[in-house]
Each structure stands twice: as C-alpha cells, then as structure tokens.
Specification:
Elements (H helix, E strand, L loop, with lengths): L13 H5 L12 E5 L3 E2 L3 E2 L2 E5 L3 E4 L10 H6 L6 H11 L5 H22 L5
Antiparallel strand pairs: 1-4, 2-3, 4-5
Length: 124
C-alpha cells in the first residue's frame, strides 16, 4: 500500500499576509476544539471534540477496523477542499501525531478507490 503524505503548507503572520499585495485574497478560518472525556457508543474514548468553521464535528479517533472514525470522515465528499487545511491544522497544533494523519489519509484514499472501482468497473 502506498503512503499518502500530508501536504506542506506555510504558516505566515498577519503582517506577512498583508504584504502579499492586491493579487492575493485573504481568508480567516477558526478551528475550535476542547477536551472531551466522553465515549462514543459508550466504549470508544473521545479525546477531543473538534468544530471546524463552526459547522462540522471531526472525529479524532480511528475504530478498530482502521477505517471508521477519522479515515471515514476524510473519505466523505463534503470534506473536499477543506481536507488539506484540516490535516495541516491538526499537524501544526499537534492534535494528532503525523503518522496517524498519514495512516488515516491512506485508509480514506483506499476506501474511495474501492468505492470508485464498484461504480466504474474496469472495461473488458
């Protein structure tokens, strides 16, 4: 199985962003998170609850099947362009070890590949 890498993004200050000039657009995003002592389904520990842009709860766990939880979330179509930003933020904020991010991304990619193969069988 191939390993997927977390894309490299550069964190810059507000001052640096303002110096980019008129050809650049600026956006501001917020990621809120809090410790969560709860358990999912009464048995899976939830270390954090994450709220991305105030709209989506990100499951920061992987189930025993290595697909459920965070990998499954990454394979959803609605995560789309926010996926790189989410992975970058989780890495920069040290909310999840990089090797876990890579594992989850690889599992999500494999799940999407299998789903596509079902929809588009190889032509004979």
């Amino acid at each position: 199985m191939s390993t997927a890498a977390v894309p490299e993004l550069k964190q810059i200050s507000r001052v640096e962003a303002m110096r980019l000039g008129p050809g650049w657009s600026h956006s501001c995003h917020a990621m809120l998170y809090a410790a969560n002592p709860g358990q999912l389904f009464g048995r899976i520990p939830m270390r954090f609850s994450v709220l991305v842009l105030g709209l989506v709860r990100v499951p920061l766990y992987t189930q025993k099947d290595r697909v459920g939880g965070f990998p499954n979330f990454l394979s959803n179509a609605f995560v789309s362009t926010a996926k790189c930003q989410l992975l970058f933020a989780l890495k920069v904020l040290n909310m999840m070890p990089e090797e876990k991010l890579v594992e989850a991304l690889a599992a999500a990619t494999e799940k999407q590949k299998k789903a596509l193969e079902k929809l588009l069988p190889a032509s004979s």
